[in-house]
Amino acid sequence: MCLTLNVANVAAEDPENVPGMITDRSTSVDLDFWKVTLPINELGKTSGIGDAVEFRALEGLAVPPYFDVKPDSVTFMAPTNGARTGGSNYPRSELREMDGNGNRYEWLAADVGRLAAILQVDELPVAIGKDAVSRIVIGQIHGPADELCRLYYDEDGHVYFVDDKAGGKQEERTFNLVAADGSEATIPLGARFSYSIEADAEKLVVTVTYDGVEYTGTDMLSAFWPDKPLYFKAGVYSQVGLEGTEAHTVGTGQGQATFFEISKPTHDLVRLAGELTSSDGDDAKSEAVTASGDARATDGDIYAGCAVVVTAQQLDAGKAYSAAKERAYKMCESVQEEFSVYEKSLVDEVVDSFFPDAGL
Hints:
Layout: E1 12-13, E2 34-38, E3 53-55, E4 67-70, E5 73-79, E6 92-97, E7 113-123, E8 126-128, E9 135-142, E10 147-154, E11 159-166, E12 171-176, E13 192-199, E14 203-210, E15 213-220, E16 231-238, E17 241-242, E18 250-252, E19 254-262, E20 266-267, E21 287-289, E22 295-298, H1 299-315, H2 321-336, H3 341-354
Parallel strand pairs: 1-3, 17-18
Antiparallel strand pairs: 2-3, 2-6, 4-5, 5-19, 6-16, 7-13, 7-19, 7-20, 8-18, 9-10, 9-16, 10-11, 11-12, 13-14, 14-15, 21-22
């Protein structure tokens, strides 16, 4: 099983002497499991082209006003003329999920992924043209090329999310967030609110809480998503680009949001050391080594077995414990076909760890 991973095309990682860079800031916001992409190039300029820089080592780092770190908050700002990543027409000041050791981290929907944040949107860019909408993305679940979740805040103060591959037709669909009384939130600029994003093998649930009221949207995952590597993003991804570019919506000004809390992304199943990691967009094949020293099955294959087990747990949550274990073994057989005896034992150990004999 080989997973193709999407990596942003940026001009430089961890440049040492970007003008305006500060290295002695501290904040209560936990940034240990993130990297940041900023709307400037190595010269500190908002170039308007695809040469944005990214920083993996965030301890002490600040690059105001684009990434302004303060004791109790982090402010993200992306101007419409900002530098962009190579794969986008829009600028961003945005975090990307990491493993805490400087490596990109991806997960499958069956692992379960959770992210929460408390923030306020300070400013929106100004979109130009009839029917043009000023909006920014404040949180994402990103896939190899498409997004399972883009959480928007727009000029009317509405918050909603989009799934690029929703439903049987696997097409883009917007999901509104609704309170128990059927109302939708209208959140003014500068007002503090929170959001949570949680995805599992069956569904995506997004909740925004404002003024004591919860607004929720649920998306049942399409067949497109279960085998796709995913990762969280948070910050400001402007949806208004620079005039004269290929951006669908263009305008002026900037998008800005201040985050007071950003949770560490959590997962029910966490990858073991040495499993698939992203590396310049290549198909990363960190191989499991057999007892004889021969490399046969990739860690991705073994990881797929783990994911199958967790899925079996979810499917059989209300059934007999022994039946769940039996089904888990059967569901793993398809990914074990090419395994050596040693490799099969690795997956069997995973099954046994989830369904210990003591529970039978």
